[in-house]
Design brief:
Number of strands: 7
CATH topology: Rossmann fold
Number of helices: 6
Strand order of the largest sheet: 1-3-4-2-5-6-7
Structural class: alpha/beta
Helix content: 25-40%
Keywords: Cell cycle, Cell division, GTP-binding, Magnesium, Metal-binding, Nucleotide-binding, Septation
Mean pLDDT: 93
InterPro entries: G_ENGB_dom, GTP-bd, GTP-bd_ribosome_bio_YsxC, P-loop_NTPase
Radius of gyration: 15 Å
Domain EngB-type G: 22-193
Bound molecules: guanosine-5'-diphosphate
CATH class: Alpha Beta
Low-confidence stretches: none
Order of helices and strands: EEHHEEHEHEHEH
Number of domains: 1
GO cellular component, one term: cytosol
Shape: globular
Protein name: Probable GTP-binding protein EngB
């Protein structure tokens, strides 16, 4: 592994529970079922990261992991629109907004998007928030193995056009490890800023 000493730090459901805001961190977000946990698993080569975040009671929390000294990965909660109540969505919005507005160590967001769905309202909210606080976004257009090569290329072009210059985007597949090297390079580039 690139991060032999990687480990879980803490879960937060309020800013007072965030870990000390030093060093660098990269956040990972995605609408639920987009494939975020699978992407984290292969990128950091750490199965227990995503498992920790999927533990009942932790799925609505911000989960902090140390990758190495002063370099963290932060797994942000996602949700599916059909599944949550208005109050859950409001709490999510508030917590995420506080996180993005306060975090000095935040260097970038990896946004995991299911290639068959494209950008959702959930993704647009995060893109707007990142734009407002000047945090760069890199989109992983995941599950690209589910489409034929030509279809995946078209979907990539469509999302790239939709994003314009608000984010960079690449094809990804946790299953086939497509785009894994590029995703790791992007993670490291964010962490080194
Ligand atoms: P999360 O809710 O965003 O963390 O999503 P998961 O990582 O749990 O993935 C949701 C579903 O999509 C699971 O059934 C995964 O096996 C599947 N999945 C995730 N990534 C891929 C991928 O790259 N290719 C394919 N074919 N399936 C994937």
């Amino acid at each position: 592994s690139q991060y032999p000493d990687a480990h879980f730090l803490t879960s937060a459901n309020a800013p007072s529970q965030f870990v000390a805001d030093t060093g660098s961190e990269v956040a990972v977000a995605g609408r639920s079922n987009a494939g975020k946990s699978s992407a984290i698993n292969v990128i950091v080569n750490r199965r227990q990261f995503a498992r920790t975040s999927k533990t009942p009671g932790r799925t609505q929390l911000i989960n902090f992991f140390a990758l190495r000294d002063e370099a963290r990965l932060v797994d942000l909660p996602g949700y599916g629109f059909a599944k949550v109540t208005a109050s859950t969505r409001a709490h999510w919005g508030q917590l995420i907004q506080q996180y993005f507005e306060q975090r000095q160590s935040l260097q970038g967001l990896l946004l995991v998007v299911d290639i068959r769905r494209g950008l959702t309202d959930f993704d647009q909210q995060l893109l707007a928030l990142c734009h407002s606080v000047d945090v760069p976004v890199h989109v992983l257009l995941t599950k690209c193995d589910k489409l034929k090569r030509g279809q995946a290329a078209s979907a990539l072009l469509a999302v790239r056009r939709e994003l314009a210059d608000t984010a960079t985007v690449q094809l990804f597949s946790a299953l086939k490890r497509t785009g894994l090297d590029d995703a790791r390079v992007q993670l490291d580039a964010f962490l080194q800023q």
